[in-house]
């Protein structure tokens, strides 16, 4: 079965998926490979621009994650801790590729204090946790998530995980990654500067890993470039700051 791009089908049992609800939604609607395998940098870049990020953000993110992963900061040339690929991982044409399960690889981008995933030490850090999801849905204010709500919720999550996880790994690097995820979410699914993200969009993206077309969302015509994303990130970080 190869349905057209944009048609939503939940992942099949042997499809690979990531801890990122947005990448999973893109795979479930065919903007990246539905089986989650052998995704090229060009495909990933085009999918995240389609959903609403600018070419500057898409290029910076994709070139980083397409590096070969090294657990060590001083790995071989061209490798990095934030890199997600294995050495020599290419498709049959020799083009570098990535599988979605590698997005969740340990000691790379995946981190503690997620909104809807458990810490690695405590359970499943890849799939949606139904209780965390319910709490996040209840954190909407008047059916919306504004930047303040996202930041304050991240702070609540930090306090919860600090109590629950004696080996919590959460420093400034993880804090800023978490706030960057929330900022991208706010810019891509928000209804403009003051209106926030509708709760129904969050239910679709997190609850069903589905792009919220049925709820009225359309991809932004003017994409979100760094000069928009960074101030939103800093605002979220202000409310989320736990240190
Ligand atoms: C190359 C593209 C992307 C990569 C490699 C990526 C990677 C990741 C990773 C590794 C996580 C898990 C972090 C954790 O442990 O909680 C994650 C979560 C997340 N990502 Fe992405 N992501 C990408 C694109 C996007 C885009 C375009 C958006 C928004 C429009 C987004 C929004 C989110 C959100 C909101 C979470 C938090 C989920 C949670 O905490 O429950 N990501 N992403």
TrEMBL record:
<dbReference type="Pfam" id="PF01328">
    <property type="entry name" value="Peroxidase_2"/>
</dbReference>
<dbReference type="GO" id="GO:0046872">
    <property type="term" value="F:metal ion binding"/>
</dbReference>
<protein>
    <submittedName>
        <fullName>Putative peroxidase</fullName>
    </submittedName>
</protein>
<keyword id="KW-0575">Peroxidase</keyword>
<keyword id="KW-0479">Metal-binding</keyword>
<dbReference type="GO" id="GO:0004601">
    <property type="term" value="F:peroxidase activity"/>
</dbReference>
<keyword id="KW-0408">Iron</keyword>
<keyword id="KW-0560">Oxidoreductase</keyword>
<comment type="similarity">
    <text>Belongs to the chloroperoxidase family.</text>
</comment>
<keyword id="KW-0349">Heme</keyword>
<feature type="domain" description="Heme haloperoxidase family profile">
    <location>
        <begin position="4"/>
        <end position="231"/>
    </location>
</feature>
<dbReference type="InterPro" id="IPR036851">
    <property type="entry name" value="Chloroperoxidase-like_sf"/>
</dbReference>
<feature type="region of interest" description="Disordered">
    <location>
        <begin position="69"/>
        <end position="94"/>
    </location>
</feature>
<dbReference type="InterPro" id="IPR000028">
    <property type="entry name" value="Chloroperoxidase"/>
</dbReference>
């Amino acid at each position: 079965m190869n349905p057209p791009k944009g048609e939503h089908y939940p992942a099949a049992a042997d499809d690979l998926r990531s801890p990122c609800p947005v990448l999973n939604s893109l795979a479930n609607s065919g903007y990246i490979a539905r089986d989650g395998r052998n995704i090229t940098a060009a495909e990933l870049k085009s999918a995240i621009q389609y959903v609403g990020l600018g070419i500057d953000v898409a290029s910076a993110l994709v070139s980083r994650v397409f590096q070969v992963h090294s657990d060590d900061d001083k790995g071989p040339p061209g490798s990095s801790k934030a890199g997600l690929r294995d050495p020599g991982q290419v498709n049959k044409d020799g083009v570098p590729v990535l599988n979605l399960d590698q997005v969740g690889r340990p000691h790379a981008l995946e981190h503690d204090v997620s909104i809807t995933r458990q810490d690695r030490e405590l359970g499943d850090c890849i799939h949606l946790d139904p209780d965390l999801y319910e709490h996040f849905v209840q954190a909407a204010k008047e059916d919306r998530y504004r930047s303040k709500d996202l930041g304050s919720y991240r702070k609540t999550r930090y306090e919860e995980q600090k109590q629950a996880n004696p080996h919590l790994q959460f420093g400034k690097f993880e804090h800023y990654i978490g706030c960057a995820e929330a900022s991208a979410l706010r810019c891509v699914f928000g209804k403009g500067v003051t209106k926030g993200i509708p709760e129904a969009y969050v239910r679709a993206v997190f609850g069903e890993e589905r792009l919220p077309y049925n709820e009225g969302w359309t991809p932004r015509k003017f994409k979100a470039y760094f000069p928009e994303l960074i101030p939103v990130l800093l605002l979220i970080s202000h409310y989320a700051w736990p240190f």
